[in-house]
Amino acid sequence: MRHLYRTLIRDDQNFWNLIFGILFAVLLFFMTLELGWWHRWRFVPPQVSIGDFMLIALAVFRLIRLFSYDKITQFARDIFMDIEYGQDGTVIVRRKASRGFRRTVIELLDCPWCTGVWLTLFVAFFYLYTPLFHFPVIVLAIAGVATLLQLTANAIGWTAEQKKIEVSKH
Fold first, then answer.
1. Triad 60, 117, 58: Cα angle to 5°
2. Burial class, 58, CB count within 10 angstroms (exposed 0-12 / middle 13-18 / buried 19+)
3. How far apart are CA 52 and CA 58, in angstroms?
4. Residues 7 and 15 sit within 8 Å (Cβ to Cβ)
5. Which residues form the domain of 8?
6. What's the Cα-to-Cα distance from 125 to each of 32, 37, 51, rounded to whole Å?
7. In this structure, are residues 91 and 77 in contact, taking their beta carbons and an 8 Å threshold?
8. Which residue, of 1, 34, 109, 139, has the greatest Cβ tally within 10 A?
9. Backbone torsions φ then ψ of 44, nearest 5 degrees
10. What pairs with residue 81 in β-bridges?
11. How far is the CA of 26 from the CAs of 72, 120, 121, 129, in angstroms?
12. Residue 145 neighbours by CB distance under 10 Å
């Protein structure tokens, strides 16, 4: 019986993974067509400088951290979680939805590589489609650099603290 249940869940998740894969492919196709129309069907790849590439990459980096890790977006991730509350309203258990659409979304949000692919699709499209999107990308890119600097400072600090502990033991 347990094997049958696991098979049903796996098949259900495979179905939703397929749906999301198809959705991604359809969005990519139509966004490509829209960019083609916008660029008068020249189908020459838009000129993306190294600077533009870095801005997009840093903006996506920051968005990945925002959607996958930051506390400020926990409420959005909680929509796709099964949460049990205590009588006083505190969270007792927070776990991924067991199956279906919600499970697939939370799996995507928990995977920074998956989140990055989806976010890159949208950020790159809008960056190339309209100059109105350049300012938000620049803001996110600067925030991404600041995040990298903070993570680097944390790593250096943790390494220094670990070395102090090791030295004091000897």
1. 15
2. buried
3. 10
4. no
5. 2-169
6. 8, 13, 16
7. no
8. 109
9. -90, 130
10. 96
11. 30, 15, 12, 18
12. 14
Distance CA 80, CA 104 (A): 9
Is 146 in contact with 59 (CB distance < 8 Å)? no
Neighbours of 124 (CB within 10 A): 22
Per-position pLDDT tens, the chain of length 170? 666 556 655 677 888 999 999 999 999 999 988 887 766 666 555 678 999 999 999 999 999 999 999 999 999 999 999 888 888 888 888 888 888 889 999 999 999 999 999 999 999 999 988 899 999 999 999 999 999 999 999 999 999 899 888 888 87
Residue 19: both structure tokens together: 């749906």
pTM for this entry: 0.79
CA 10 to chain centre: 23
Q: How many domains does the chain have?
A: 1
The 3-state DSSP class for residue 86 equals coil
Beta carbons of 109 and 63 less than 8 angstroms apart: no
Nearest to 26 by CA among 165, 152, 121, 148: 121
Tracing tokens 């196709």 back to the chain, one arrives at 29
